[in-house]
Amino acid sequence: MPPNVLHSWDSNASKQRFHVHPDEIDDNGNQHNPEFDTNAILPPKTTWGKSTPRDNGRALWEKILQNGAHLIPDDADEEFHPSISSELFASLSDIVVLSDDTRESDWLNQFRGRLTNVSTGLLEGLRKHAPDQKRMSTVADFNDNLFYHMQQERGLRHFHGLDTEHVEELETVLNANEYLGSFLTTKCSLPQPAHVDYPWEVLEQHAGDESLKIGFFPLTKEGMFLQIWPTIVSPKYSSIEVEGQIIFIPYGKLLTVPASTIHGGGFRTNELRSQNENNNSGNLRFHLYIATNESALPVHQTNKYTEPYDRTKELSRRYVDSRHMNVLLENFFV
Q1: Phi (first) and psi of residue 50, to 5 degrees
Q2: Could you tell me if residue 192 is inside a domain?
Q3: Do 233 and 319 fall into the same domain?
Q4: Is 232 exposed, middle or buried (0-12, 13-18, 19+ CB in 10 A)?
Q5: Buried b (16+ CB within 10 A) or exposed e, 101-136
Q6: Under a CB-based contact definition with an 8 Å cutoff, are residues 64 and 93 in contact?
Q7: Does 60 map to a domain?
Q8: Is the domain of 88 the same as that of 103?
Q9: Is 217 in contact with 286 (CB distance < 8 Å)?
Q10: Whether 200 and 288 share a structural domain
Q11: Which of the residues 79, 104, 279, 304 has the least number of beta carbons within 10 Å of its own beta carbon?
């Protein structure tokens, strides 16, 4: 390269070449290089040019949440980078957003679920009590991608500093004889195998009254995601595949469903960091085990991954992932 010249990158459709810029001469006749300008060397900056597919997918997800059911593919195409495919749009749009119990009444009725509010004060208080990842255990589900920290005491009153009024609000909603909580966070997005949270023998005892329930609510503003399957336990249908549905529970919402609900977690949309920033990484969330109607929780909560009528067969053999799972893992979840 000759001395005292700057080179800038110029591109067009047919070829790329360098251009030489002469030095500037000041009023005293001294020669010097003009101020170094990165814009003269680098290609023009574009917001989407530096974005990863997952960045684009999460930006589109935020737009879908803001617009609800009103966003259509044409709207996304006008604002978002062409690399966002109609397939990704369809996959994100198919996630059931449980932000409104009236709008999602059909889904809630199908799964016999209930959607209620959780106070911000309770969420902030629980997040402060979330343990560091080093103090959490790994869920034994063959994926090794979920951290959990089960509470030893029933209820929430053992958490110092929680507002009693906020705890009482939650307990009124749960209407439980007893309940137990567990913190959960995701190491990396990998679908948890289909399972239930209690032994099938326990669930069969309460099949008539559904007095055992489970609940989920996020502790960070990223919300939380689950995969849930319609339960078909009869051996008569043992050869029929059941496709999972991906749902989203926003910050401030609590979903409760019967304990027999087949489900799986394992998703995150924010990075997993050392929990020194308000314990907000890995889509931190809270999982509830709930006993109502004078029933009692089992002594131990144990996930079961096998069929109720044949304990040698994994549920995941016929309770299969959503058809959108691969697209979302590649372009959305991290």
Answers
A1: -95, -5
A2: yes
A3: yes
A4: middle
A5: beebeebbeebebebbebeeebbebbbebbeebeeb
A6: yes
A7: yes
A8: no
A9: yes
A10: yes
A11: 79
- In 3-state terms, what secondary structure has residue 146? strand
> Do 327 and 226 fall into the same domain?
yes
The pTM of this model reads 0.80
Q: Which amino acid is at 23?
A: D
pLDDT in tens, 273-298: 654 454 567 899 999 999 999 899 98
CA dist 127 and 286 (Å) reads: 9
- Asked if 126 contacts 182 with a C-beta cutoff of 8 angstroms, the reply is no
Domain check: are 305 and 242 in the same one? Answer: yes
| pLDDT tens digits, 121-151 | 999 999 999 988 888 888 877 778 899 999 9
Tell whether 138 and 57 lie within a shared domain: no
Q: At what angle do helices 53-67 and 86-93 cross, to 10 degrees?
A: 50
Tokens 């020194």 belong to residue: 276
CA nearest to 205, candidates 264, 319, 291: 291
Which of 169, 158, 162, 193 lies closest to 117, judged by CA? 169
**Between the CA atoms of 310, 313, 318 and 321, what dihedral angle is there, to the nearest 10 degrees?**
130
Please check whether residues 243 and 323 belong to one and the same domain.
yes
Instruction: Check if the beta carbon of residue 325 is closer than 8 Å to that of residue 91.
Output: no
